[in-house]
């Protein structure tokens, strides 16, 4: 046997299938449809069935749920490119009442009533 040939089977070229990266998901065109069904209190299996039947997009209930959860998280954070366009119209930090100095200082807490014991009055012979 030739020691240079370890594996003589040709590599299998498999075509990738599936949703791919989240922002290239095949469910992206159906976000409004999914949102509408969720507002009607439809379950994830019902939404997956509706996507398959009405829109021709076959997907599992778990796939719809994961996509929609990621979609909401992504849009809740905002995108850094979108924020640069709106940075002039929106302040970075809103002005708050707490940023103004107080009109009068807050009162100091009361003095504690605890008094430290006098160690000279203890009989230490007891502990040795």
Concise account of the structure shown:
The protein has 128 residues and is an all-alpha fold.
The helix-and-strand class reads mainly alpha
Task: Estimate what percentage of residues fall within beta strands.
Answer: under 5%
Average pLDDT score: 76
Indicate the overall shape.
elongated
Q: Would you report the number of β strands?
A: 0
Task: Count up the helices.
Answer: 4
If you compute it from the alpha carbons, what radius of gyration comes out, rounded to the nearest whole angstrom? Answer: 33 Å
* SSE order, one letter for each helix or strand: HHHH
Runs in which pLDDT lies below 50 for 5 or more consecutive residues are: none
Largest sheet data: none
Can you walk through the features of this model?
The chain is mostly helical and 128 residues long. It has a domain at 22-80. Helices cover 35% and strands 0% of the residues. The protein has four helices and no strands. It has helices at residues 31-39, 44-55, 61-77, 80-86. Helix 2 (44-55) crosses helix 3. The longest helix is centred in the middle third of the chain and has 17 residues, at 61-77. The model has no long low-confidence stretch (mean pLDDT 76).
What's the topology here?
Elements: H1 31-39, H2 44-55, H3 61-77, H4 80-86
Helix pairs in contact: 2-3
Keywords:
128 residues; mainly alpha; 4 helices
């Amino acid at each position: 046997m030739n020691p240079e040939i370890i594996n003589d089977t040709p590599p299998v070229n498999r075509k990738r299938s599936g949703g791919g990266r989240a922002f290239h998901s095949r469910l992206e065109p159906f976000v409004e449809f999914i949102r509408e069904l969720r507002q009607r209190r439809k379950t994830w299996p019902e939404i997956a069935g509706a996507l398959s039947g009405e829109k021709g997009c076959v997907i599992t209930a778990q796939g719809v749920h994961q996509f929609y959860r990621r979609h909401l998280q992504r849009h809740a954070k905002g995108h850094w490119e979108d924020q640069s366009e709106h940075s002039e119209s929106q302040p970075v930090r809103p002005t708050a009442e707490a940023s103004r100095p107080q009109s009068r200082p807050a009162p100091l807490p009361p003095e504690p009533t605890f008094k430290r014991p006098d160690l000279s009055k203890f009989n230490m012979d007891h502990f040795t």
